[in-house]
Specification:
The chain is of the alpha+beta class and 391 residues long. It has helices at residues 3-16, 30-58, 72-98, 110-141, 151-182, 197-216, 252-256, 275-280, 307-312, 340-343; strands at residues 262-266, 269-273, 284-291, 297-306, 320-326, 335-338, 349-354, 357-358, 368-370, 383-390. A hairpin with a 2-residue loop joins strand 1 and strand 2. Helix 2 runs antiparallel to helix 5. The termini are far apart. The structure holds ligand MTE and molybdenum atom (MO).
């Protein structure tokens, strides 16, 4: 193809691709984008901090973690999911408001071209990571895993990309943000039939609020019935939803086997305890929530034996960590390690009952772990073994 033909083709293409000016910009543009950003930024920071906290609880060791108040994790993880949900409409409107800029022609002067490309790359990372975090987070809270990668590791890693590129983005855009807030309203009158910016922003806040309530209000008294989009109905045996059932975990028969014994190992040896042995020990009753990483939570009254009392039988102390193992043959949540700070708490239980009745098989009969202020994934069900590990 000759150079002339090529130029001709480029010119024709250029004429067909819209330019930013071709979009109606009375509602789009920096004024809208900046106002949405003022909400989107804090929502992302809140997601990031609560996400880091959840990660630290699931990977203990780097710094001391608070073991209470008992509802702490219920609140932080509720905020994590609520802020992420609220961010979805905000992000969509923000993307819509800056969409025309996607059609900007790159400048030809080399220095400006480099700056332009850098800005585009940073926006690419920001938008890509934000969309990835919200999409995977929403899917996870819906217990839908349409991908093959490891959710926990990727959601954690991309969280850093999102927050890093967001900080860069805010720094780069600060002059425009200030201008957007300082500038007098556009002189150009809105076209008839176009909503005002104020009503666009109000509708966006409303959409965010509706999204949050519809997906997360299961916990709030009186609002349970409006939580139409919540994955959890908020009901299950003994008033608590079930994440994985006994049948699903392949433990249905093992759980009700009368020959069941809890194997407890520590520095001074091993003991095997039947359910009656455990029931003969001092019983405690605690009110603690199950707070799933997926965002749902529910409180129950649990009865059983303190972990510290059980490990004391084999020489374990409150400065030891304790690992519990499920009878479940496979799966990522078969095992969890209780750091010594929790072992010391008298409300860290090997639970035998819920709501005054023996545990339902789906809640971990014959015996499960229940502790304060930790993610639901660590509250291991259908225990077979307890092991003292010297910290
Ligand atoms: N053995 C075992 N324990 C488990 C799980 C599991 O899959 N296997 N799921 C965990 C998760 S993700 C949660 S949220 C809680 C839910 O407890 P529940 O079903 O009693 O509400 O159990 C935890 N304990
Ligand atoms: Mo969970």
């Amino acid at each position: 193809m000759s150079e002339r033909a090529l130029r001709g083709l480029a010119a024709r293409l250029d004429a067909r691709i819209p330019r930013p000016e071709d979009f109606d910009d009375t509602l789009r543009g920096p004024r809208t984008a900046a106002r949405i950003g003022v909400w989107l930024g804090p929502a992302f920071v809140l997601c990031f901090l609560t996400g880091l906290f959840s990660h630290a609880l699931q990977h203990p060791g780097s710094f001391p973690l608070p073991t209470g108040p008992t509802r702490l994790y219920q609140v932080t993880q509720g905020l994590h999911v609520a802020a992420g949900t609220a961010a979805v409409p905000l992000l969509l409107v923000k993307l819509w408001s800056v969409f025309p800029r996607f059609f900007e022609r790159p400048p030809l002067a080399p220095r400006r071209l480099v700056l332009h490309l850098l800005e585009r790359v940073s926006v690419f990372f920001l938008v890509g990571s934000a969309v990835f975090q919200l999409a995977t987070g929403l899917a996870n809270s819906a217990q839908w895993y349409p991908w093959r990668f490891d959710f926990i590791r990727s959601h954690f890693a991309i969280g850093w990309v999102a927050v890093g590129s967001m900080i860069l983005h805010v720094a780069v855009k600060l002059p425009q943000v200030r201008a957007a807030f300082g500038a007098p309203p556009e002189a150009r009158p809105a076209r008839a039939g176009t909503p005002s910016r104020r009503s666009l922003l109000r509708t966006t806040w409303l959409a965010s609020a509706v999204a949050v309530v519809a997906t997360t209000a299961v916990e709030l008294p009186g609002l349970r019935r409006v939580a139409l989009l919540a994955v959890r109905s908020g009901t299950g045996p003994q008033g608590i939803p079930v994440n994985r059932s006994a049948v699903g975990a392949l433990v249905a028969d093992l759980a009700v086997d009368p020959a069941w014994r809890l194997k407890v190992t520590g520095p001074s040896g091993t003991v095997e305890l039947s359910r009656d042995d455990l029931l003969a020990m001092p019983q405690r009753s605690v009110v603690l929530p199950i707070a799933c990483v997926e965002g749902w939570s529910a409180s129950g009254t649990w009865g059983g034996v303190a972990v510290r009392d059980v490990v004391a039988l084999v020489g374990g102390t409150t400065s030891d960590d304790v690992t519990v193992r499920s009878m479940q043959p496979r799966g990522a949540y078969r095992e969890s390690t209780l750091p010594s700070a929790w072992v010391a708490r008298t409300d860290s239980l090997l639970a035998l009952s819920l709501a005054g009745e023996p545990l339902d098989p789906d809640h971990g009969y014959p015996c499960r772990l229940i502790t304060s202020a930790r993610p639901g994934v660590l509250q291991t069900k259908w225990l077979g073994e307890v092991e003292v590990v010297r910290a």
